[in-house]
Amino acid sequence: MQQAHHQLTVFSSQGRGLYEFTHELRDWVRSSDIQAGLLTVFVQHTSASLLIQENADPTVQADLERFFARLVPDGDPIFRHRQEGNDDMAAHARAALTQTHLAIPIVGGAPVLGTWQGVFLYEHRYDPQHRKVMIHLIGE
Questions:
Q1: What structural domains does the chain harbor?
Q2: Taking the CB of the first residue and of the last residue of the chain, which one, N or C, has fewer CB atoms within 10 A?
Q3: pLDDT per residue over 50-63, tens digit each?
């Protein structure tokens, strides 16, 4: 049994939206020499999340954003936490409704994802942010 871990700090988001990093994950897994195991991906923030989502049609991402805008509107009067602006508590709620960690099987030295699946950081804040994602791989 082997383990490897790494912190991705490549995320300087341009604000709210989805940022794919599937290629970075694949490259790192390949470099680990672990052929079979489990990859854990964890975002170290409370106003961003992780998604496995379609990466072929960008209208999917736009539709997701419209859905979340309706579900969790910025500046909703029910929110009292607004220290960093109208999108502050909405960003926390969006992160609570999505995922802050993912588990992805590794087979043949690569993440097992479907044909149209990609791994995304979902930035929930309007302003650009620096995000860190920790990745951990255990296997043989």
A1: 2-139 (2.60.120.460)
A2: N
A3: 999 999 999 999 99
